[in-house]
Amino acid sequence: MNQFQYVRATKAQAAIDVVAKDPNAKFIAGGTNLVDLMKRGVVTPQKLVDINRLPLAKIETTGTGLRLGALALNSTVANDAQVRAQHPLLALALNAGASPQLRNMATVGGNMLQRTRCTYFYDLTMPCNKRQPGSGCGALEGINRMHAIFGASSTCIAVHPSDMSVALVALDATVLVSGPKGDRRIPFGDFHRLPGDTPEKDTNLEAGELITAVELPASPFTKHVHYQKVRERASYAFALVSAAAALDIDGNNTIKAARLALGGVAHKPWRLTAAEQVLVGKPATEESFRQAATVAMQGAKAFKHNEYKLRLAPNTLVQALKTAAAA
Ligand code: SF4
Q1: Nearest CA to ligand 1 atom 2
Q2: Using a 6 Å CB cutoff, which residues line ligand 1?
Q3: Does some domain include residue 291?
């Protein structure tokens, strides 16, 4: 691991000032991904600003919903009574991620900022535009069975690994950040980026900006929800494909509203607004779910080894919807 300076911050503005002024400085909280990346030499920050002592771990109600502090642990959020009652989809997604040990270290903000698990990104002997812009993409002509089927570019076909983020994009969350230019709010769907020509940028955060919280609006999706994750072993594995489904169903089994998103298919959690619209006013039946899944897959494109995702993604979505409807 490269040598680095360690600074412990007790004030958010001081932490922001340090990182904003120094392009080689990074915030660190749980460190569950960053330390791995540093050990492998994928990232080599010269300064780490430890933000664990900042007062950003609260889970609290607001006038419009629930606010999750950026330093709230994944396990704390997943087990929180308010989260489980008001946003059970989020609790399900969190518990599908990583392992209990990691969930006890990883924070809300860090979960959103974790990097892709593309093996070429971690292998310093291979080209990777995300790790080293302009070097090429090892996955394009390499083994790409874990890679994107939506929104990829000729420079990067990686997927975002977070389960939590798939639920948050479906639930219309908002990210609160503070930075050198002040505070701002970013709709969750605009937080992560598609790779385009700049795959080295995973998010739309600007230099020195610190995630302080995530807000969830009050939601009718408290009962008919499910997070379906398909992976190669029963736990502690990233999604081949995952689906977040939330339905509001009336007494006649008619869908009043739906929220849908896929994970493991794109460089960002992949919201399915067109498919949601297909479901509104329809009966909560497998036929309706299949129609929505067909719409959800419009524009999907496979690479040499991930054609299976063109079948797995719609089937996972339908399974998530069936389980949600039956909940
Ligand atoms: Fe790097 Fe993206 Fe290509 Fe993976 S898919 S090798 S992360 S550029």
Answers
A1: 156
A2: 116, 118, 120-121, 128-130, 137-139, 156-158, 199
A3: yes
Ligand 1 pocket test, pick from 40, 114, 116, 121 with the greatest ligand atom count within 8 Å of Cβ, gives 121
DSSP assignment string, 18-49? HHHH-TTEEEESS-TTHHHHHHTTS---SEEE
Q: Is residue 59 part of a domain?
A: no
Contact predicate 158/147, CB 8 Å: yes
Q: Whose CA is nearest to atom 3 of ligand 1?
A: 137
Range of the domain at 28: 5-52
Structurally, the chain folds into a number of domains equal to 2
Map tokens 């006013």 to a residue. 281
Instruction: Give the CATH number for residue 9.
Output: 3.30.43.10
Q: pLDDT digits over 272-326, tens only?
A: 999 999 999 999 999 999 999 999 999 999 999 999 999 999 999 999 999 999 9
